[in-house]
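hiii, so i know i said id send this last week but things got crazy w the move. better late than never?? heres the sequnce for the chain we talked about at the cafe, plus the structure i predicted for it. fair warning i was half asleep when i ran it
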Amino acid sequence: MFEALFDPPVLALLIPVLVIVAIIVRMILRHRERMAIIEQGLDPDLRARERR
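okay and structure toks below
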């Protein structure tokens, strides 16, 4: 059943799709965190400066 997932043509499509999905999910989660910080009345850029 899962052997078909490891065929080279399938992997050639699956890997880029998974990378794009991961990037989109990360952007959504970052946006939600940023909006939560703004709702609390804090400056979201200040927290980013503290991490560096």
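btw The two ends are 46 Å apart (CA to CA). thought thatd interest u
miss u guys!!
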